[in-house]
Amino acid sequence: MTPPRLALNLFWRTFALLALLLAAGVLAWQQTFKALEAEPKALEAAQQLAGLVNLSRVALSSTDAINRVAVVKSIARSEAVSVEVAEATDRWLPYENSPFAQRLRKELVSRLGPQTVLASGLNGVPGLWVRFDVGPDQFWLQTNPAPLQANFSSNWWWIAIALGASLLGAAAIARLINQPLRELSIAASRIREGEYDSRLDESTLTSEIREVNMGFNRMARELAKMEEDRSVMLAGISHDLRTPLARLRLEAEMSVNDEQARTYIAQDIDQLDAIINKFMDYARPSELQLQALNLRELVEREAQGFRDPQQIVISVRLSAALRIWTDPTELGRILLNLFENARRYGHHGDEPARVDVTAEADSAWVLLTVRDHGPGVPPDKLSKLTTPFYRGDTARTAATGAGLGLAIVEKSVQRLGAHLRLSNADDSGFVAQLRLKRASV
């Protein structure tokens, strides 16, 4: 199954969901407060404007037409309010159509009469303009809309603070929720790597997490005991089997006169001993000691163990300056089993197996390729080759063995934190590719 392109860990997933929830809550409450505040603000603004208009109307209606000019001029001296005579040629802009403006307009009309007009600009002059009647005449009252806007404007700085606090709260909550799961994940990873001494807190206040931790610790203790028992059992089996094998070898050398029969018995004993070694290699735990080592030297050292040109010919084409982070014992075990696998199965007829060892490197990784020129493996069986005791087709199982070679390779690769890929070459042959971490020169 192909992994998703965007994969978030549990912390960021929880944080994102909580952040969205809290941010939506803040904005929803802000809009709610805004809607609840609209009507009282509109009533207050309408009352203030109606009061100014009524004062102006009283002042203008109590004077004759000649003295009204003086009254208009005296009102114009105020910085906050001015009055102008309405003309038929006036060009005015309608006031905004927000819920607040609609409520304000409705209140002014109800207080000042149906002929009242609310405008946001008059003859190119911006402001809050109210047209009202004084008898047969009409006038414009101008006032500064800033106080109205300031009273009703949203406090975005408060919203920013609330959102910031919500994000911090979401991060804290997500961390508290996911910390036990993170500890469980780390402990499980250590168990997978063979460290059975990992323990989780059994005194936590959350009952579900406490039960999970207690179950995990119990499982870790049982696995540690099973691993200890298995090590003791394998050591005993190895000792108990090798002692009679040694006696059989000695008895064959001393008592069997037929040279060919003695040779066959020795080969069978060597094969049994090799199978025991395979079992021990697969089962024994390994403590890694990662070092920056020369790759070509490691490969050549393991290749020297296959010196019979009648069975296998290994060609090593690696840069002398290529270095990797690895454990020499584990990588040696990997190479030994790959070479042995090629020696047994990577030949055609009576010809020796030919093995090519090459590598490609970038700044962070080294791709080590071990390829033989044998018959290859059926594609439907490639994924099963690392299964313990599994055997492929007869073309690659002509020789006897424990069926653990590639299983040991995969297990050692996992211990190193590397990656293994098995495939067939395009022009016949079996290919094993190891992706190893590169070390700086």
Question: Characteristics of this structure?
Answer:
histidine kinase, two-component regulatory system, EC 2.7.13.3, Beta-Lactamase, Helix Hairpins, Heat Shock Protein 90, 5-stranded antiparallel β-sheet, ATP binding, 5-stranded mixed β-sheet, kinase, 441 residues, alpha+beta
How are the secondary structure elements laid out?
Layout: H1 10-61, H2 65-76, E1 81-85, E2 92-94, H3 99-112, E3 117-122, E4 125-134, E5 137-143, H4 146-152, H5 156-192, H6 207-255, H7 259-283, E6 291-294, H8 295-303, E7 312-316, E8 323-326, H9 328-345, E9 353-361, E10 365-372, H10 405-416, E11 419-424, E12 430-437
Parallel strand pairs: 7-9
Antiparallel strand pairs: 1-5, 2-3, 3-4, 4-5, 6-8, 9-10, 10-12, 11-12
Helix pairs in contact: 1-2, 1-3, 1-5, 6-7, 8-9, 9-10
In short:
By secondary structure, the chain is an alpha+beta fold. It has three domains: 134 residues, Sensor histidine kinase RisS, periplasmic domain (Beta-Lactamase, 2-Layer Sandwich), CATH 3.30.450; 85 residues, Helix Hairpins, CATH 1.10.287.130; 150 residues, Histidine kinase-like ATPase, C-terminal domain (Heat Shock Protein 90, 2-Layer Sandwich), CATH 3.30.565. Helix content is 53%, strand content 17%.
Number of helices: 10
In which range does the helix fraction lie?
Answer: 40-55%
Ranges where pLDDT stays below 50 over 5 or more residues in a row are: 393-399
The number of domains is 3
Name of the top-level CATH class of the largest domain: Alpha Beta
Q: Mind telling me which CATH architecture of the largest domain this is?
A: 2-Layer Sandwich
Label the structural class.
alpha+beta
Identify the CATH homologous superfamily of the largest domain: Histidine kinase-like ATPase, C-terminal domain
Principal-axes geometry comes out as elongated
Look up the CATH topology of the largest domain: Heat Shock Protein 90
Number of strands: 12
Question: pLDDT average, as an integer?
Answer: 77
